[in-house]
Design goal:
It is globular and about 55 Å long. About 50% of the residues lie in helices and about 20% in strands. The chain has 11 helices and 10 strands. Strands 1-2-4-5-6-7-8-9 form an 8-stranded mixed beta barrel, surrounded by 5 helices.
């Protein structure tokens, strides 16, 4: 019985530690957003098929803390989402991404958007302001949203998505297959692209059941005129299978890790040496 109480005490201490850590990250992130030289954006190349061109890149937030070093987005994005800081952080990433994209017309720049941003009625106006200020073309911008948005009955989110699509901005559904994936949601929230999550791609090998799943996703998507990106491609075998199944775009360490802005510029300028 006392063992149970001890476990409860240990559990409570752990909870307190976790909460304390979140509070620390939150206040440090608030500070970083004020100074902003700690924050940067990296770009991971997107490889188009069948030609193998680098058709664009995904922008990913990076945080280099003066004392704690590199902090992973997996740690700070959820804290940013829970504290409201995601709006400022998201805008910082979007601006950097559009500054990059403006220099490379015709290349798609994909930017991750949090549900909180999409639910803001002023979000579309802010995006158009940033496009205008940076000179980036709307048709070169792709906003990546997560599946949880599709369960969201919020009028504002769907209104924002419609506004974006009618202005030529592309919408991609990120991490497909990890949540309540149902292609039937796509009738309510039409998207241009589905990104098949790494958890499916990493299982792809000849004869494995995941091949049939990915094949089904791709053929359904294509029947609905939706393009496919496969993320987390790490091996030649995965790439081969995905190309054979008709994936339009491949992304993963096999081609390149996310790289700083000056390096993606070099890759765009000369894909052969990338
Ligand atoms: P995500 O949107 O699914 O982004 C892809 C993640 O997979 C990135 O991790 C990328 O570095 C990693 N990745 C790419 N290729 C491979 C591969 O071949 N193998 C493996 N093992 N990993 C690969 P990262 O940069 O750590 O970002 C993690 C997540 O944080 C992102 O997942 C996204 O959900 C979120 N995130 C990052 N930047 C932003 C941002 O600016 N805004 C928002 N809202 N979320 C962001
Ligand atoms: Ca993404
Ligand atoms: Ca993803
Ligand atoms: Ca993912």
């Amino acid at each position: 019985k006392s063992g149970g109480r001890n476990r409860a005490v240990v559990y409570e201490e752990r909870m307190n530690e976790v909460l304390q850590l979140q509070r620390t990250i939150e206040s440090e992130l608030r500070e970083a957003l004020r100074q902003s030289d700690q924050l940067s954006v990296e770009f991971q190349p997107l490889m188009s098929q069948p030609n193998g061109d680098i058709g664009g890149a995904e922008a990913l937030a990076r945080w280099l803390h003066p004392k704690y070093g590199k902090i992973s987005p997996a740690k700070f994005i959820p804290v940013a989402e829970n504290s409201g800081l995601i709006e400022d952080l998201g805008e910082f990433v979007l601006r950097r991404a559009c500054e990059m994209g403006a220099q490379w017309p015709g290349r798609t720049i994909a930017v991750n958007i949090s549900p909180t941003q999409l639910r803001n009625p002023t979000f579309a106006t802010r995006v158009f302001d940033i496009l205008h200020q940076t000179g980036m073309r709307a048709t070169d911008l792709e906003l990546e949203i997560t599946e949880s948005i599709l369960l969201d009955d919020e009028h504002v989110s769907s209104q924002n998505l419609r506004t974006f699509r009618s202005s030529g901005i592309h919408i991609a559904l990120d991490d497909f297959g990890t949540g309540y994936s149902s292609l039937s949601y796509l009738r309510r929230y039409p998207v241009d692209r589905i990104k098949i999550d790494r958890s499916f791609v990493s299982q792809l090998s000849k004869g494995h059941a995941s091949v049939a799943i990915v094949q089904a996703i791709i053929s359904l998507a294509h029947a609905m005129d939706i393009e496919i990106t496969a993320e987390g491609v790490e091996t030649e075998e995965q790439a081969e299978i995905l190309i054979q199944l008709g994936s339009n775009t491949l992304q993963g360490y096999l081609f390149s890790r996310p790289v700083p802005a000056d390096e993606i510029a070099r890759i765009f300028a000369d894909p052969g040496s990338g």
